[in-house]
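> call design_seq(struct)
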């Protein structure tokens, strides 16, 4: 019985490899895969700013965090996102596991969030259920500026509410994240692509129109005619845009329910004073959307406008995946694109708190003692710098000078034996000898407790911690 099963698995993996070009990597290439990159320490202040702002807004608006595996069964995505989409047809990283399961690296987060929502019975929670997730997603696209094969998203989804007020709030959250990162000039593009009922009629109308212009479309759009004609509307090819310009628009063909929903959304957006534009060509690249779709575009005056993020309503997805009928709306922002735009508009990156104290040591015994002293100060919320590897006091003091600290603590052989520490005021040069057990209190007093930076898990929670709001 067992050996039979093994045979099937083997057969499957042979079949999977047959059509593939397998490139054996003979030499070790010291570089990431094409379209992927390292995020180096010098880039981290931007990434930290995005993490902090997006997480804070998630908390402020009542989103609970959820972390999901990067790998899921392939059919979760093909069923959820839609067979005819570029993401499923061309862009997934799919493979067979050793156990014979067909799996894919997530090309987006929403399908996984819905899988978890159903699996963990979140339908019994009070509505709306709001979930925030963040991390990398993978799409085998042609890499270019702002388009990577591995990119990061911050993703917000809400479940259980069909009122357009949720759509408006979701758009508001997306805008808040972008603006709190210091990106002020953006455009909100909105559209309604209706529900499966009114879209069916609209689709027929659109296909009829597109058939009559078929020879003016690009090769890709000719193929899209069958599977995904709505996508032709937002094709970037000039000739397709010209055809799209005169195409029938979905908002003119909405059923009563979708029309009222869209009207209500626009009223909420007006009430919030959000600067939106109705874009009848906005259809989005994932099949699960119903009614509202939106994108936030960078405000570059000239050149290409980037979509910093996008989302919409997806009232049918939970049911398609096997859950009970549950309306939902959400969005994701692309972190690399946010950072690209932050740099372009010279928005501030996160400023890490700087240590105000330096710990210098001299001699073997003092060196041993200094490890414990450092940890004692750290436990008490005092951010300390050191250069334990350096032997000479002169070179350590040079480092202290370069860091611009207010106080240098010097632990020599004698002090280590006496259980004392020399405390040097770096501005005045005045030195005093302090008993080691009184050191923490004295340093706190000297730095004035209010400005002591307590630094745990990347969070700054001293009394002087700065607001994340930049506006
Ligand atoms: P999406 O529009 O496919 O939506 O992706 C969201 C954002 O991710 C885009 O607006 C863009 O900023 C960024 N992005 C997409 N592809 C790339 C890429 N190749 N390189 C760099 N950045 C990229 C979704 O993924 C939906 N799941 C959003 C959503 C959540 N809808 C409802 N809930």
């Amino acid at each position: 019985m067992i050996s039979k099963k093994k045979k099937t698995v083997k057969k499957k993996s042979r079949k999977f490899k047959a059509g593939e070009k397998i490139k054996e990597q003979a030499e070790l290439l010291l570089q990431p895969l094409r379209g992927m990159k390292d995020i180096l320490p010098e880039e981290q202040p931007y990434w930290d700013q995005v993490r902090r702002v997006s997480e804070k807004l998630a908390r402020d608006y009542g989103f609970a965090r959820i972390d999901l595996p990067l790998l899921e069964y392939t059919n979760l995505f093909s069923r959820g996102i839609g067979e005819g989409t570029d993401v499923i047809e061309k862009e997934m990283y799919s493979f067979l596991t050793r156990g014979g399961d067909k799996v894919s690296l997530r090309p987006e987060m929403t399908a996984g969030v819905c899988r978890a929502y159903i699996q963990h019975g979140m339908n019994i929670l009070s509505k709306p259920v709001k979930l925030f997730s963040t991390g990398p997603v993978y799409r085998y696209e042609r890499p270019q500026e702002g388009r990577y094969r591995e990119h990061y998203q911050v993703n917000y989804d809400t479940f259980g509410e069909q009122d357009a007020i949720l759509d408006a709030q979701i758009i508001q959250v997306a805008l808040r994240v972008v603006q709190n990162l210091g990106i002020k000039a953006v455009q909100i593009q909105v559209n309604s692509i209706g529900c499966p009922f009114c879209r069916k009629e609209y689709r027929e109308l659109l296909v009829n129109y597109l058939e009559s212009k078929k020879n003016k479309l690009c090769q890709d759009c000719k193929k899209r005619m069958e599977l995904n004609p709505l996508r032709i509307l937002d094709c970037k090819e000039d000739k397709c845009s010209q055809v799209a310009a005169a195409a029938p628009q979905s908002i003119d063909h909405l059923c009563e329910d979708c029309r009222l929903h869209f009207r209500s959304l626009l009223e909420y957006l007006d009430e919030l004073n959000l600067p939106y534009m109705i874009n009848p060509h906005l259809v989005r690249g994932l099949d699960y959307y119903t009614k509202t779709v939106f994108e936030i575009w960078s405000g570059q005056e000239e050149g290409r406008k980037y979509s910093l993020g996008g989302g919409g309503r997806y009232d049918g997805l939970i049911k398609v995946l096997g859950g009970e009928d549950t309306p939902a709306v959400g969005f994701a922002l692309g972190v690399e694109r946010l950072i690209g735009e932050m740099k372009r508009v010279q928005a501030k990156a996160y400023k890490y708190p700087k240590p105000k104290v330096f710990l210098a040591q001299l001699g073997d015994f003092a060196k041993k003692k200094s490890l414990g002293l450092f940890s004692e100060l750290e436990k008490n919320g005092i951010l300390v710098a050191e250069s334990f590897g350096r032997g000479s006091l002169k070179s350590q003091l040079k480092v202290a000078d370069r860091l611009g600290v207010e106080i240098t603590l010097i632990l020599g052989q004698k002090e280590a034996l006496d259980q004392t520490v020399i405390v040097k005021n770096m501005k005045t040069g005045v030195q005093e000898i302090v008993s080691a057990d009184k050191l923490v209190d004295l340093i706190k007093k000297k730095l004035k407790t209010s400005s002591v930076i307590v630094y745990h898990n990347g969070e700054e929670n001293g009394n002087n911690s700065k607001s994340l709001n930049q506006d």
